[in-house]
Amino acid sequence: MNIFQKIGVRICNYALAVAEYLIKWREPRLLKSYSELVDALTLREIDNVLIVSDQNIYKFGLTQYIENALNKAGIKYTLYLDVSPNPTFKNVYDGRDIYINNNCKGLIAIGGGSVMDCCKTIGVLVTNNGKIEDYKGLFKVHHNMPTMVAFPTTSGTGSETTVAAVIRNEVTGEKFPIESIKVVPKFAYLDDRLLKDLPPFVFATTGMDALTHAIEAFLNHDTTHKTRKYALDACKLIKDNLEAGYINKDNLEAKSHMLTASFLAGKAFTRSMVGNVHAIAHAIGGKYNLPHGYLNAIILPHILELYKNNAKKKMSIIAVYIGVGSEKNTYIENAQLLIDWIKELNKKFALPEKIKEIQKEDIPHLARTSYKEAVPLYPCPVLFNKADFEKIYHSIKEN
Ligand SMILES: [Fe+2]
Asked: How far, in Å, is the centroid of ligand 1 from the Cα of 329?
């Protein structure tokens, strides 16, 4: 990117940072028990809810905890269990129709980012009407969605606390975010029992998604004291617990810490944003329908290699804070240690170094999509133009 383009992008980044400073940020209230869930719904006269989840979560019996609490309290509910791993327009429209036809008054999401994002978008359509694409991008949602309670069942997306919902247009393959303060759920409940049967691969890759949120938020230019602290604490919890929870799936303490890490990373990036790693993962995920955390895990070390000269001080701070670096080292040495740790982690999770699904002929389109998402929205430490993105796609593509 040439100097004039960079100045233009940085001015946009700065203008957005000022706008964000003026926004009244919201976060969900954390519930601590199922009786608090019932009280929260009853207080709002919500006696009929739509539960949004997916077939696997239902088969593992994870919806049962919530269903039992609602049954006991006499609160009616309807289950919508068809959310896809990359939630589609059809998922959202089906969920909206079920919500309206059953006279629901509130939403409960039980699942990972896909379920929560689908649930948020159902909520947007219920109170705002219109089509999904009307709300694409920043701050297009005008009315609050119905009361929503989020129960995360993975260790990574942080969607229970973020302003974003990512939806995939299954016809065009485009995956895009809806970003608005109005889509932050009213309540969240971090129940580690919901992670009990999470397959190790999903635990690992969603955890790597949380790590990507924390690192991208920390390295971005638009940070606050709070978001930097959230991001660093999330990285430390991930360093101390992700591998432990992967090796031993019954280690509920590690899983509980990962839920906290995911929540903190969500709070960091909802204010300080994600970056180029996500811009690439979204484009590839939309095109080839691949899991988001899996893609972030592979892409993250490649991008950090490109950042390390410009962002070495901040990368060093992360490395020292989580214990993979040392204050005795130079910034660049610590930055490299951070990258090496991430690569080692990926190896332990049996993740590849490159992405075999990327097709050479798709690269110009993927690069354009990533560029459109990242520029000028994300205040990344290094800015890429379309040609830079093309080069990156060639370097992460398996030959
Ligand atoms: Fe993510």
From this structure: 30
Characterise 80 by phi-psi region: left (phi > 0), alpha (psi -120 to 50), beta (else). beta
> Measured in angstroms, how far is the CA atom of residue 34 from the centroid of ligand 1?
28
Chain position carrying tokens 């379309």: 386
Residue 197 predicted with pLDDT over 90: no
- 10 Å CB burial of residue 2 (0-12, 13-18, 19+) is exposed
**Do 174 and 168 meet the contact criterion of CB atoms below 8 Å apart?**
yes
pLDDT at 23: 79
Backbone φ and ψ of 309, nearest 5°: -75, -40
3-state helix, strand, coil in the chain (%, to 5): 60, 10, 30
Average of per-residue pLDDT across 356-385? 95
How much distance in Å is there from the Cα of 296 to the middle of ligand 1?
7
Q: What is the mean pLDDT of residues 309-315?
A: 98
- The Å distance, Cα 157 to ligand 1 centre, comes to 6
